[in-house]
Amino acid sequence: MGVFRKLSLALLLPLLFVIFRAGYNQYLLVSLTYTVDPLSPNDMVFDSELYTTLFNHTKWAKVDTFAVGVGIPFNVIPKHLWGEEEFGAEVMKQLWDQRLVTQFNRQPTNKLPKMGDGSVSDALAAQVVSVGDKDMSIALVSRPKKNQLPMGFEHILVTFDRENKVAMAMIRYIWHTRTETPPSWRKSLARWSQMNGRRQWLLHTANAIAEQRKSQPVKLEL
After folding, report:
1. Alpha helices in the chain (DSSP H)
2. Is residue 188 predicted with pLDDT exceeding 70?
3. Is pTM, for the whole model, over 0.90?
């Protein structure tokens, strides 16, 4: 009986460690970023000419939305990124490379994406449809070989909160569906995965920017 108990404990401890580690990582993702879920119907993105051109031609059964963001203290941002345009270009470059690596298994380009840049897999296509000084928009197509119409839209926006000395980066995510389907754990898991993925992109971007100043990773402020 003692041997069985010891064996059970030996098997249980690694499992408990994995559960604890996963829970701690999730805590960090949530605590170091902020979330808007869902977006307000009056959010500025819905009034933009680009969004209305791409999506107002169809009556969608459901429009799923959320936004995630991160704040980076000014004191960890290197001097060459102290301007909003320079900081915005770095954020957009980092986020685009994160998408290429994690969604498409491609090498990072280490360049600011330009309008028309894109990447395609069997499951997803992403294309940059606008690049500004402080924002970028990306259209997403699900199963591109079968469906050539964009279903998803992401808007990346960078702002400086000079009063609180924090640089902000936010990703707005919007996904459209033609038919309503019943809720399921698969849909919930997929949505959670999309939100967590963008949290990871933002935190990776924040730390990559902080490391350019040769500083240790810092606790990010909201």
Report:
1. 2-31, 49-55, 84-104, 185-211
2. yes
3. no
